[in-house]
Design a protein that fits this description.
The protein is mostly beta strands. The protein contains 1 helix and 30 strands. It has a 5-stranded antiparallel beta sheet with strand order 1-4-9-6-7, with no helix packed on it. The protein has a 5-stranded mixed beta sheet with strand order 2-11-10-5-8, with no helix packed on it. The chain is elongated and about 100 Å long.
């Protein structure tokens, strides 16, 4: 009797629950047909075309509430940290986590995906979120990158020329590889952003670099670039080697070329201030060091006298790679300026057959 009584209770509950679920689903689709309640209109599949490994693929679309009641979007999530659902307003992107659309309202959305995966293959990313649309309690958008390709890669990926002195030359080689099958051809190379830099495209001369060729692809040597640089002026080297590929209209691949150019002699400090404040009182004498940037002896002399200043240059040791320049203010106390003044000492540096001048500012501070 107890078993029979329990069955009488359980069976109606099961049947009732199933009927309720069926009625809810039918009710949701019926509401969509009549335009009643919240109704989501949004693509469930988005194709993003072919993209290179490491690029950011993007596709924009709209999401609309076609119903008569507010549509709620919440609990947005993705199957990969490389992708996300973003709202686009005034050309600005913001990550969408939840939102609510009034009846008839439309918003602009974008999916951006950092391209990963096997080269030559299609890659799918899914973005899911919950809604209060009875027909779609969970909505899934599948974003497909139709094919992952690769740009020309380089070894090394950047060229470091270190520190050069004016007049010095440097050279470097960059090997180029391609993962495409068949491999693409290099049309030309170009140097920009650095005066004195030239590049020449040569036939491929290297095997694949260690670590290249991952992602089930074969990396094929497609060329070598020989770079030459002549240091012409002091300052940072901020060049770029541009690689143009036959048949491609997009922006060329860029390989940074960096370094620094200095004078053959480094002056430390590059400015003197007199007097020097000490615990014993002001001192009207100070010094700088002139150090040869290359391992070549130099000779430092004072080109012209400066009124009120005594300037003496002497080698620090027998190698004559470092010189000490002493500057003292011997002006009488009553002739020293009542306000800050600036003087310039000109030093002539000789290195072998070459010579050049260095300007050393001296600030005479107000006492």
């Amino acid at each position: 009797m107890r078993l029979t009584y329990a069955l009488y209770l359980v069976i109606p509950l099961l049947v009732g629950g199933a009927v309720f679920a069926i009625k809810s689903a039918v009710s949701g689709h019926a509401q969509r047909q009549m335009g009643v309640g919240p109704i989501i209109q949004c693509p469930s599949e988005v194709e993003m075309g072919e993209h290179e490994l490491g690029e950011t693929a993007e596709n924009r679309f709209t999401l609309r509430n076609a119903g008569s009641k507010p549509l709620k979007i919440f609990n947005v999530r993705t199957n990969c940290s490389c992708s996300g659902l973003e709202r686009v307003e005034d050309a600005k992107y913001s990550r969408l986590e939840s939102t609510e659309l009034a009846p008839g309202q439309t918003i602009d959305l974008a999916i951006r995906v950092g391209v990963k995966g096997g080269l030559g293959r299609a890659v799918k990313n899914q973005i899911a979120f919950e809604t209060n649309d009875p027909a779609y309690p969970e909505f899934v958008i599948t974003a497909t990158i139709n094919k992952v390709t690769s740009g020309i890669c380089a070894s090394p990926t950047s060229v470091l020329l270190d520190t050069l002195v004016v007049g010095q030359r440097a050279a470097a080689d960059v090997d180029l590889f391609d993962y495409m099958v068949p491999p693409r051809r290099i049309e030309r190379v170009e140097c920009v952003g650095a005066e004195g830099m030239t590049a020449k495209l040569l036939p491929a001369q290297a095997a694949a670099p260690a670590g290249a060729g991952d992602n089930d692809a074969v990396d094929v040597p497609v060329g070598r670039v020989h770079i030459e640089f002549e240091a012409r002026k002091v300052g940072p080297i901020e060049g770029m080697l541009l690689i143009y590929v036959v048949g491609e209209t997009k922006a060329p691949n860029g390989i940074p070329v960096v370094g620094r150019v200095t004078q053959p002699v480094q002056v430390t400090p590059d400015t003197l201030v007199l007097p020097v404040v000490t615990a014993a009182g002001p001192r009207y004498i100070s010094e700088v060091q002139c150090r040869a940037a290359a391992n070549t002896p130099i000779e430092v002399t004072v080109s012209q006298k400066v009124d009120g200043l005594v300037v003496v240059a002497t080698p620090t040791n027998e190698t004559r790679l470092v010189w000490t320049v002493t500057v003292s203010d011997n002006s009488p106390a009553d002739r020293r300026s009542a306000k800050t003044a600036r003087r310039v000492v000109t030093l002539t540096v000789r290195e072998g057959q070459k010579s050049f001048d260095i300007q050393l500012p001296v600030i005479l501070a107000q006492e």
